[in-house]
Hints:
By secondary structure, the chain is α+β, with helices and mostly antiparallel strands. The protein has helices at 2-22, 46-52, 77-83, 118-121, 259-272, 289-295, 313-316, 336-344, 399-405, 424-428, 447-455; strands at residues 56-68, 94-109, 113-117, 126-130, 136-145, 150-155, 178-183, 191-202, 213-216, 228-231, 236-243, 254-258, 282-286, 303-308, 324-328, 331-332, 351-358, 361-368, 381-382, 392-396, 414-419, 435-439, 442-443, 460-467, 470-477. Among the domains are: 170-272, Trypsin-like serine proteases (Thrombin, subunit H, Beta Barrel); 282-368, PDZ domain (Pdz3 Domain, Roll), CATH 2.30.42; 381-477, Pdz3 Domain, CATH 2.30.42. The chain has 11 helices and 25 strands. It is globular.
Amino acid sequence: MQVTQKIVAGLAALFAWAALAMTPPPVAAAEKVVPGSAGDITLSFAPLVKKAAPAVVNIYARKVVQARQVSPLFDDPFFRRFFGEGFGRGFGAPQERVQNSLGSGVIVDPKGVIVTNHHVIDGADEITVVLADRREFAAAVAGTDERTDLAVLRIDAKGEALPFLDFRDSDSLEVGDLVLAIGNPFGVGQTVTSGIVSALARTQVGISDLNFFIQTDAAINPGNSGGALITADGKLVGINTAIFSKSGGSHGIGFAIPGNMVRSVIAGITHGGKLVRPWLGASGQTVTAEIATSLGMPRPMGVLVNEIHPRSPIREAGIAVGDAIVAVAGQPVDDPQALKFRIATLGVGQTADLTVWRRGRERHVTVKLVAPPEDPPREVSEIGGANPLTGATVANMSPALAEELGIDPAPEGVFVIELKRGATANRLGFKPGDRILAINGEETATVGRLKTALARPADRWRVSLNRGGNVLNWVIEK
Protein backbone atom coordinates (compact mmCIF):
# COMPACT_ATOMS: atom_id res chain seq x y z
CA MET A 1 0.00 0.00 0.00
CA GLN A 2 2.81 2.40 0.90
CA VAL A 3 4.59 1.51 -2.32
CA THR A 4 1.46 2.28 -4.31
CA GLN A 5 1.05 5.66 -2.59
CA LYS A 6 4.66 6.53 -3.32
CA ILE A 7 4.19 5.63 -6.99
CA VAL A 8 1.03 7.78 -7.23
CA ALA A 9 2.73 10.70 -5.49
CA GLY A 10 5.72 10.39 -7.80
CA LEU A 11 3.56 10.34 -10.89
CA ALA A 12 1.64 13.41 -9.68
CA ALA A 13 4.87 15.33 -9.13
CA LEU A 14 6.09 14.25 -12.55
CA PHE A 15 2.88 15.49 -14.27
CA ALA A 16 2.98 18.78 -12.34
CA TRP A 17 6.59 19.35 -13.43
CA ALA A 18 5.68 18.56 -17.05
CA ALA A 19 2.72 20.93 -16.98
CA LEU A 20 4.91 23.67 -15.56
CA ALA A 21 7.53 23.08 -18.23
CA MET A 22 4.90 23.28 -20.97
CA THR A 23 3.42 26.58 -19.67
CA PRO A 24 4.54 29.45 -21.94
CA PRO A 25 6.55 32.22 -20.27
CA PRO A 26 4.72 35.45 -19.37
CA VAL A 27 4.24 37.74 -22.39
CA ALA A 28 4.65 41.49 -22.14
CA ALA A 29 1.45 43.48 -22.68
CA ALA A 30 0.92 44.08 -26.39
CA GLU A 31 1.22 47.66 -27.59
CA LYS A 32 -2.21 49.25 -27.92
CA VAL A 33 -3.38 50.00 -31.45
CA VAL A 34 -6.46 51.62 -32.94
CA PRO A 35 -9.19 49.08 -33.87
CA GLY A 36 -8.79 48.21 -37.53
CA SER A 37 -11.53 45.60 -37.87
CA ALA A 38 -14.54 44.20 -36.08
CA GLY A 39 -12.27 41.65 -34.42
CA ASP A 40 -10.09 44.40 -33.02
CA ILE A 41 -12.93 46.20 -31.25
CA THR A 42 -11.70 44.99 -27.86
CA LEU A 43 -8.50 46.95 -28.34
CA SER A 44 -7.98 50.60 -27.29
CA PHE A 45 -8.47 54.04 -28.78
CA ALA A 46 -5.82 55.40 -26.39
CA PRO A 47 -3.08 55.91 -29.03
CA LEU A 48 -5.53 57.84 -31.20
CA VAL A 49 -6.66 60.01 -28.30
CA LYS A 50 -3.07 60.76 -27.24
CA LYS A 51 -2.39 62.01 -30.75
CA ALA A 52 -5.55 64.05 -31.28
CA ALA A 53 -6.53 65.38 -27.84
CA PRO A 54 -3.71 67.98 -27.50
CA ALA A 55 -5.15 69.84 -30.49
CA VAL A 56 -8.59 70.22 -28.85
CA VAL A 57 -8.87 73.25 -26.59
CA ASN A 58 -11.29 74.76 -24.09
CA ILE A 59 -12.72 78.19 -24.87
CA TYR A 60 -13.95 80.60 -22.22
CA ALA A 61 -15.85 83.64 -23.51
CA ARG A 62 -16.83 86.58 -21.33
CA LYS A 63 -19.03 89.54 -22.11
CA VAL A 64 -20.42 92.40 -20.08
CA VAL A 65 -24.21 92.76 -20.21
CA GLN A 66 -26.63 95.26 -18.73
CA ALA A 67 -29.09 93.76 -16.26
CA ARG A 68 -31.64 95.20 -13.88
CA GLN A 69 -31.62 94.13 -10.26
CA VAL A 70 -35.27 93.77 -9.26
CA SER A 71 -37.19 92.20 -6.44
CA PRO A 72 -38.30 88.55 -6.78
CA LEU A 73 -41.82 89.84 -6.03
CA PHE A 74 -41.95 91.18 -9.58
CA ASP A 75 -41.85 87.59 -10.86
CA ASP A 76 -44.54 86.35 -8.46
CA PRO A 77 -47.64 85.14 -10.38
CA PHE A 78 -49.87 86.49 -7.59
CA PHE A 79 -48.74 90.08 -8.17
CA ARG A 80 -48.71 89.69 -11.94
CA ARG A 81 -52.32 88.51 -11.83
CA PHE A 82 -53.45 91.80 -10.32
CA PHE A 83 -50.92 94.25 -11.74
CA GLY A 84 -50.37 92.73 -15.21
CA GLU A 85 -47.44 91.18 -17.01
CA GLY A 86 -45.63 94.52 -17.13
CA PHE A 87 -45.48 94.69 -13.33
CA GLY A 88 -41.98 95.62 -12.18
CA ARG A 89 -40.64 96.65 -15.56
CA GLY A 90 -38.62 99.82 -15.39
CA PHE A 91 -37.71 99.34 -11.72
CA GLY A 92 -34.11 98.90 -10.71
CA ALA A 93 -31.15 100.69 -12.21
CA PRO A 94 -29.30 98.77 -14.95
CA GLN A 95 -26.10 97.22 -13.65
CA GLU A 96 -23.22 95.60 -15.47
CA ARG A 97 -22.58 91.92 -14.93
CA VAL A 98 -20.22 89.46 -16.57
CA GLN A 99 -21.78 86.65 -18.57
CA ASN A 100 -19.60 83.60 -19.17
CA SER A 101 -19.94 80.91 -21.82
CA LEU A 102 -17.98 77.72 -22.30
CA GLY A 103 -17.16 75.73 -25.39
CA SER A 104 -14.47 73.83 -27.24
CA GLY A 105 -12.26 74.47 -30.22
CA VAL A 106 -9.76 72.75 -32.50
CA ILE A 107 -6.28 73.91 -33.50
CA VAL A 108 -6.07 73.48 -37.28
CA ASP A 109 -2.77 75.25 -37.89
CA PRO A 110 0.45 75.02 -35.82
CA LYS A 111 0.72 78.82 -35.96
CA GLY A 112 -2.31 79.18 -33.70
CA VAL A 113 -5.42 79.11 -35.92
CA ILE A 114 -8.41 77.68 -34.03
CA VAL A 115 -11.91 76.91 -35.25
CA THR A 116 -14.96 76.83 -33.00
CA ASN A 117 -18.69 77.58 -33.16
CA HIS A 118 -19.92 81.12 -33.72
CA HIS A 119 -22.43 80.79 -30.89
CA VAL A 120 -19.62 79.98 -28.42
CA ILE A 121 -17.93 83.38 -28.82
CA ASP A 122 -20.82 85.53 -30.13
CA GLY A 123 -20.67 89.00 -28.57
CA ALA A 124 -17.71 88.15 -26.33
CA ASP A 125 -15.55 90.96 -24.99
CA GLU A 126 -12.80 88.60 -23.88
CA ILE A 127 -11.89 85.10 -25.12
CA THR A 128 -9.46 82.77 -23.38
CA VAL A 129 -8.16 79.55 -24.93
CA VAL A 130 -6.90 76.83 -22.60
CA LEU A 131 -4.78 74.05 -24.12
CA ALA A 132 -4.84 70.44 -22.99
CA ASP A 133 -1.56 71.05 -21.11
CA ARG A 134 -3.32 73.89 -19.18
CA ARG A 135 -1.51 76.77 -20.89
CA GLU A 136 -3.76 79.80 -21.40
CA PHE A 137 -3.81 82.29 -24.27
CA ALA A 138 -5.86 85.36 -25.07
CA ALA A 139 -7.58 84.84 -28.42
CA ALA A 140 -8.51 87.30 -31.15
CA VAL A 141 -11.39 86.73 -33.55
CA ALA A 142 -10.09 86.40 -37.12
CA GLY A 143 -13.60 86.13 -38.52
CA THR A 144 -16.99 84.53 -38.05
CA ASP A 145 -19.65 83.03 -40.26
CA GLU A 146 -23.06 83.01 -38.63
CA ARG A 147 -24.62 81.13 -41.56
CA THR A 148 -22.56 78.03 -40.77
CA ASP A 149 -22.17 78.77 -37.04
CA LEU A 150 -18.36 78.83 -37.35
CA ALA A 151 -15.74 81.19 -35.99
CA VAL A 152 -11.98 81.36 -36.55
CA LEU A 153 -9.70 82.50 -33.70
CA ARG A 154 -5.98 83.25 -33.51
CA ILE A 155 -3.61 82.92 -30.57
CA ASP A 156 0.01 83.99 -30.30
CA ALA A 157 2.19 81.08 -29.17
CA LYS A 158 5.38 83.16 -29.48
CA GLY A 159 6.66 81.16 -32.45
CA GLU A 160 6.09 77.75 -30.86
CA ALA A 161 4.49 75.15 -33.13
CA LEU A 162 1.22 73.99 -31.57
CA PRO A 163 -0.36 70.54 -31.90
CA PHE A 164 -2.99 70.54 -34.63
CA LEU A 165 -5.33 68.24 -36.54
CA ASP A 166 -5.31 67.61 -40.27
CA PHE A 167 -8.61 67.52 -42.13
CA ARG A 168 -10.10 64.45 -43.74
CA ASP A 169 -12.38 64.64 -46.76
CA SER A 170 -15.81 64.52 -45.11
CA ASP A 171 -17.34 63.18 -48.34
CA SER A 172 -15.37 59.96 -47.75
CA LEU A 173 -17.42 59.20 -44.63
CA GLU A 174 -19.90 56.37 -44.66
CA VAL A 175 -22.71 55.54 -42.30
CA GLY A 176 -21.32 53.11 -39.72
CA ASP A 177 -17.79 54.55 -39.62
CA LEU A 178 -16.29 54.80 -36.12
CA VAL A 179 -15.79 58.35 -34.81
CA LEU A 180 -14.65 60.03 -31.59
CA ALA A 181 -15.98 63.31 -30.17
CA ILE A 182 -13.53 65.35 -28.08
CA GLY A 183 -14.57 68.41 -26.11
CA ASN A 184 -15.29 69.88 -22.69
CA PRO A 185 -18.90 68.94 -21.77
CA PHE A 186 -20.45 70.81 -18.84
CA GLY A 187 -17.02 72.28 -18.05
CA VAL A 188 -15.84 69.07 -16.35
CA GLY A 189 -12.64 68.94 -18.43
CA GLN A 190 -11.59 67.36 -21.68
CA THR A 191 -13.70 64.29 -22.42
CA VAL A 192 -13.65 61.70 -25.20
CA THR A 193 -16.72 59.77 -26.36
CA SER A 194 -17.02 57.22 -29.13
CA GLY A 195 -19.72 56.21 -31.56
CA ILE A 196 -20.48 55.79 -35.21
CA VAL A 197 -21.67 57.97 -38.06
CA SER A 198 -25.44 57.56 -37.78
CA ALA A 199 -26.41 59.49 -40.92
CA LEU A 200 -25.02 61.87 -43.51
CA ALA A 201 -26.32 64.98 -45.26
CA ARG A 202 -28.91 65.89 -42.64
CA THR A 203 -30.49 69.03 -44.14
CA GLN A 204 -33.76 69.39 -42.23
CA VAL A 205 -32.23 70.12 -38.84
CA GLY A 206 -32.80 73.88 -38.75
CA ILE A 207 -29.63 74.70 -36.81
CA SER A 208 -28.10 77.12 -39.29
CA ASP A 209 -28.78 78.60 -42.71
CA LEU A 210 -26.53 76.17 -44.58
CA ASN A 211 -27.98 72.96 -43.14
CA PHE A 212 -25.93 69.88 -44.01
CA PHE A 213 -24.74 67.86 -41.04
CA ILE A 214 -23.03 64.65 -40.03
CA GLN A 215 -25.16 62.84 -37.48
CA THR A 216 -23.43 60.75 -34.82
CA ASP A 217 -24.37 58.82 -31.69
CA ALA A 218 -21.08 59.73 -29.98
CA ALA A 219 -22.21 61.53 -26.83
CA ILE A 220 -22.21 65.32 -27.33
CA ASN A 221 -23.29 67.58 -24.47
CA PRO A 222 -23.31 71.32 -23.66
CA GLY A 223 -19.69 72.48 -23.74
CA ASN A 224 -18.83 70.12 -26.60
CA SER A 225 -19.80 72.83 -29.10
CA GLY A 226 -16.82 73.61 -31.32
CA GLY A 227 -15.03 70.39 -30.41
CA ALA A 228 -13.59 67.80 -32.76
CA LEU A 229 -15.23 64.86 -34.47
CA ILE A 230 -12.36 62.64 -35.60
CA THR A 231 -12.13 59.40 -37.54
CA ALA A 232 -10.17 56.24 -36.78
CA ASP A 233 -7.14 57.64 -38.63
CA GLY A 234 -6.97 60.60 -36.24
CA LYS A 235 -8.11 63.27 -38.71
CA LEU A 236 -10.67 66.01 -38.25
CA VAL A 237 -13.87 65.23 -40.11
CA GLY A 238 -16.29 67.64 -38.44
CA ILE A 239 -16.93 70.27 -35.78
CA ASN A 240 -19.50 69.27 -33.18
CA THR A 241 -22.21 71.90 -33.05
CA ALA A 242 -25.57 70.73 -31.68
CA ILE A 243 -27.64 67.93 -30.21
CA PHE A 244 -31.26 66.88 -30.37
CA SER A 245 -32.41 66.77 -26.78
CA LYS A 246 -35.51 67.36 -24.68
CA SER A 247 -33.57 67.36 -21.43
CA GLY A 248 -30.36 69.21 -22.34
CA GLY A 249 -28.31 66.00 -22.21
CA SER A 250 -27.17 63.61 -24.91
CA HIS A 251 -29.81 61.32 -26.39
CA GLY A 252 -27.49 59.84 -28.99
CA ILE A 253 -28.41 62.32 -31.73
CA GLY A 254 -25.59 64.80 -32.27
CA PHE A 255 -24.71 66.93 -35.28
CA ALA A 256 -21.36 68.05 -36.65
CA ILE A 257 -20.51 70.52 -39.41
CA PRO A 258 -18.70 68.56 -42.16
CA GLY A 259 -14.97 69.16 -42.41
CA ASN A 260 -15.17 70.24 -46.06
CA MET A 261 -17.39 73.18 -45.09
CA VAL A 262 -15.17 74.01 -42.12
CA ARG A 263 -12.10 74.02 -44.34
CA SER A 264 -13.69 76.38 -46.89
CA VAL A 265 -14.75 78.84 -44.17
CA ILE A 266 -11.26 78.85 -42.64
CA ALA A 267 -9.67 79.40 -46.05
CA GLY A 268 -12.01 82.28 -46.85
CA ILE A 269 -11.40 84.03 -43.54
CA THR A 270 -7.65 83.45 -43.15
CA HIS A 271 -6.60 84.01 -46.77
CA GLY A 272 -8.97 86.65 -48.06
CA GLY A 273 -9.84 88.38 -44.80
CA LYS A 274 -13.52 88.15 -45.74
CA LEU A 275 -15.58 85.10 -46.53
CA VAL A 276 -17.12 85.31 -50.00
CA ARG A 277 -19.12 82.37 -51.27
CA PRO A 278 -19.91 81.52 -54.89
CA TRP A 279 -23.25 82.75 -56.17
CA LEU A 280 -25.64 80.59 -58.18
CA GLY A 281 -28.41 83.15 -58.47
CA ALA A 282 -31.18 80.57 -58.63
CA SER A 283 -33.76 78.92 -56.44
CA GLY A 284 -35.60 75.66 -56.70
CA GLN A 285 -37.57 72.94 -54.97
CA THR A 286 -37.01 69.31 -54.06
CA VAL A 287 -38.02 66.91 -56.83
CA THR A 288 -40.97 64.91 -55.53
CA ALA A 289 -42.31 61.64 -56.92
CA GLU A 290 -44.92 63.54 -58.95
CA ILE A 291 -42.33 65.94 -60.39
CA ALA A 292 -39.98 63.03 -61.17
CA THR A 293 -42.73 61.31 -63.14
CA SER A 294 -43.49 64.47 -65.12
CA LEU A 295 -39.78 64.86 -65.95
CA GLY A 296 -39.36 61.22 -66.94
CA MET A 297 -36.92 60.50 -64.09
CA PRO A 298 -36.38 56.92 -62.92
CA ARG A 299 -36.76 58.12 -59.31
CA PRO A 300 -37.09 61.40 -57.37
CA MET A 301 -33.72 63.18 -57.23
CA GLY A 302 -32.26 66.64 -57.41
CA VAL A 303 -33.54 70.21 -57.27
CA LEU A 304 -35.99 71.57 -59.84
CA VAL A 305 -34.92 75.07 -60.91
CA ASN A 306 -37.91 77.40 -60.79
CA GLU A 307 -36.33 80.88 -60.69
CA ILE A 308 -33.08 82.30 -62.08
CA HIS A 309 -31.62 85.77 -61.64
CA PRO A 310 -31.00 87.57 -64.97
CA ARG A 311 -27.25 87.75 -64.22
CA SER A 312 -26.92 84.25 -62.78
CA PRO A 313 -23.84 82.24 -63.83
CA ILE A 314 -25.98 79.13 -64.35
CA ARG A 315 -28.11 81.06 -66.86
CA GLU A 316 -24.91 81.92 -68.74
CA ALA A 317 -23.97 78.22 -68.65
CA GLY A 318 -27.25 77.30 -70.35
CA ILE A 319 -29.31 76.01 -67.44
CA ALA A 320 -32.95 77.07 -67.63
CA VAL A 321 -36.07 77.05 -65.49
CA GLY A 322 -37.49 73.50 -65.57
CA ASP A 323 -34.09 71.79 -65.46
CA ALA A 324 -33.29 69.64 -62.44
CA ILE A 325 -29.80 69.82 -60.88
CA VAL A 326 -29.11 66.32 -59.56
CA ALA A 327 -25.41 66.46 -58.64
CA VAL A 328 -22.51 68.85 -58.04
CA ALA A 329 -19.03 67.49 -58.83
CA GLY A 330 -20.51 64.00 -58.77
CA GLN A 331 -22.05 64.43 -55.32
CA PRO A 332 -25.85 63.98 -55.35
CA VAL A 333 -28.08 66.82 -54.16
CA ASP A 334 -31.57 65.91 -53.00
CA ASP A 335 -32.88 69.27 -51.83
CA PRO A 336 -32.08 73.01 -52.05
CA GLN A 337 -30.09 72.92 -48.78
CA ALA A 338 -27.78 70.23 -50.16
CA LEU A 339 -27.29 72.25 -53.36
CA LYS A 340 -26.38 75.37 -51.36
CA PHE A 341 -23.93 73.36 -49.27
CA ARG A 342 -22.16 71.83 -52.25
CA ILE A 343 -21.73 75.19 -53.95
CA ALA A 344 -20.66 76.89 -50.70
CA THR A 345 -17.76 74.45 -50.22
CA LEU A 346 -16.27 75.52 -53.56
CA GLY A 347 -14.28 78.69 -54.15
CA VAL A 348 -14.97 81.79 -56.17
CA GLY A 349 -13.12 81.55 -59.48
CA GLN A 350 -13.38 77.77 -59.65
CA THR A 351 -15.69 75.84 -61.94
CA ALA A 352 -18.38 73.39 -60.91
CA ASP A 353 -19.54 70.38 -62.88
CA LEU A 354 -23.32 70.22 -62.53
CA THR A 355 -25.26 67.14 -63.54
CA VAL A 356 -28.56 68.34 -64.98
CA TRP A 357 -31.66 66.36 -65.95
CA ARG A 358 -33.29 67.73 -69.09
CA ARG A 359 -35.69 66.15 -71.57
CA GLY A 360 -35.37 62.65 -70.22
CA ARG A 361 -31.60 62.39 -69.84
CA GLU A 362 -28.65 63.64 -67.83
CA ARG A 363 -26.29 66.30 -69.14
CA HIS A 364 -23.10 67.78 -67.69
CA VAL A 365 -22.82 71.55 -67.52
CA THR A 366 -19.72 73.47 -66.41
CA VAL A 367 -20.50 76.60 -64.42
CA LYS A 368 -17.94 79.28 -63.59
CA LEU A 369 -18.36 80.25 -59.95
CA VAL A 370 -18.42 84.01 -59.35
CA ALA A 371 -18.86 86.30 -56.38
CA PRO A 372 -22.31 87.84 -56.01
CA PRO A 373 -22.30 91.33 -57.60
CA GLU A 374 -22.77 94.43 -55.45
CA ASP A 375 -25.25 95.93 -57.90
CA PRO A 376 -27.19 98.02 -57.20
CA PRO A 377 -25.16 99.61 -54.37
CA ARG A 378 -26.91 98.69 -51.13
CA GLU A 379 -27.02 102.26 -49.73
CA VAL A 380 -27.80 101.10 -46.18
CA SER A 381 -29.74 103.86 -44.38
CA GLU A 382 -31.52 104.30 -41.06
CA ILE A 383 -34.79 106.15 -41.54
CA GLY A 384 -35.50 109.13 -39.30
CA GLY A 385 -38.09 111.86 -39.10
CA ALA A 386 -41.85 111.77 -38.51
CA ASN A 387 -42.97 108.82 -40.64
CA PRO A 388 -44.02 105.18 -40.21
CA LEU A 389 -40.54 103.80 -41.00
CA THR A 390 -38.65 105.80 -38.37
CA GLY A 391 -36.09 103.51 -36.72
CA ALA A 392 -35.94 101.06 -39.63
CA THR A 393 -32.68 100.35 -41.46
CA VAL A 394 -33.30 99.80 -45.16
CA ALA A 395 -31.13 98.89 -48.15
CA ASN A 396 -31.24 98.26 -51.87
CA MET A 397 -31.20 94.51 -52.35
CA SER A 398 -28.26 93.27 -54.41
CA PRO A 399 -27.00 89.72 -55.00
CA ALA A 400 -24.15 90.39 -52.54
CA LEU A 401 -26.52 91.54 -49.79
CA ALA A 402 -28.92 88.71 -50.56
CA GLU A 403 -26.09 86.20 -50.19
CA GLU A 404 -25.19 87.65 -46.79
CA LEU A 405 -28.82 87.41 -45.68
CA GLY A 406 -29.31 83.91 -47.10
CA ILE A 407 -31.77 84.97 -49.83
CA ASP A 408 -31.44 83.38 -53.25
CA PRO A 409 -32.01 84.49 -55.93
CA ALA A 410 -31.68 88.16 -55.08
CA PRO A 411 -35.00 90.01 -55.40
CA GLU A 412 -35.05 93.63 -56.45
CA GLY A 413 -36.21 96.60 -54.42
CA VAL A 414 -35.84 98.21 -50.99
CA PHE A 415 -35.85 95.92 -47.97
CA VAL A 416 -36.05 96.43 -44.24
CA ILE A 417 -32.95 94.73 -42.85
CA GLU A 418 -33.02 95.86 -39.22
CA LEU A 419 -35.34 97.53 -36.71
CA LYS A 420 -34.45 99.64 -33.69
CA ARG A 421 -36.21 98.27 -30.66
CA GLY A 422 -39.07 100.49 -29.49
CA ALA A 423 -38.89 102.77 -32.55
CA THR A 424 -41.95 103.73 -34.58
CA ALA A 425 -41.38 101.14 -37.31
CA ASN A 426 -40.95 98.41 -34.72
CA ARG A 427 -44.14 99.37 -32.87
CA LEU A 428 -46.16 99.50 -36.10
CA GLY A 429 -45.23 95.91 -36.94
CA PHE A 430 -42.66 96.20 -39.71
CA LYS A 431 -40.30 93.22 -39.85
CA PRO A 432 -36.81 92.54 -41.27
CA GLY A 433 -37.29 91.13 -44.75
CA ASP A 434 -40.23 93.38 -45.65
CA ARG A 435 -39.92 94.82 -49.13
CA ILE A 436 -41.32 98.35 -49.31
CA LEU A 437 -43.23 98.68 -52.59
CA ALA A 438 -44.86 102.10 -52.33
CA ILE A 439 -45.53 105.03 -49.99
CA ASN A 440 -48.77 106.98 -50.56
CA GLY A 441 -49.01 105.52 -54.06
CA GLU A 442 -45.44 106.48 -55.01
CA GLU A 443 -43.27 103.51 -56.01
CA THR A 444 -40.13 103.07 -53.92
CA ALA A 445 -37.79 101.03 -56.11
CA THR A 446 -34.65 102.47 -54.51
CA VAL A 447 -33.60 103.82 -51.12
CA GLY A 448 -33.35 107.28 -52.65
CA ARG A 449 -36.94 107.20 -53.87
CA LEU A 450 -38.13 105.84 -50.52
CA LYS A 451 -36.48 108.73 -48.68
CA THR A 452 -38.05 111.22 -51.09
CA ALA A 453 -41.52 109.74 -50.52
CA LEU A 454 -41.10 109.77 -46.74
CA ALA A 455 -39.86 113.37 -46.75
CA ARG A 456 -43.24 114.64 -47.94
CA PRO A 457 -45.39 115.59 -44.93
CA ALA A 458 -48.62 113.62 -44.56
CA ASP A 459 -51.36 113.13 -41.99
CA ARG A 460 -52.21 109.73 -43.41
CA TRP A 461 -49.75 107.16 -44.70
CA ARG A 462 -50.55 104.38 -47.15
CA VAL A 463 -47.78 101.79 -47.15
CA SER A 464 -47.61 98.87 -49.58
CA LEU A 465 -45.16 96.09 -48.77
CA ASN A 466 -44.34 92.52 -49.73
CA ARG A 467 -43.91 90.07 -46.87
CA GLY A 468 -43.08 86.46 -47.71
CA GLY A 469 -44.66 86.77 -51.16
CA ASN A 470 -47.87 88.37 -49.89
CA VAL A 471 -48.65 92.03 -50.64
CA LEU A 472 -49.92 93.96 -47.61
CA ASN A 473 -51.49 97.41 -47.79
CA TRP A 474 -51.50 99.41 -44.57
CA VAL A 475 -53.18 102.71 -43.75
CA ILE A 476 -51.51 104.55 -40.85
CA GLU A 477 -53.09 107.64 -39.34
CA LYS A 478 -50.85 110.26 -37.83
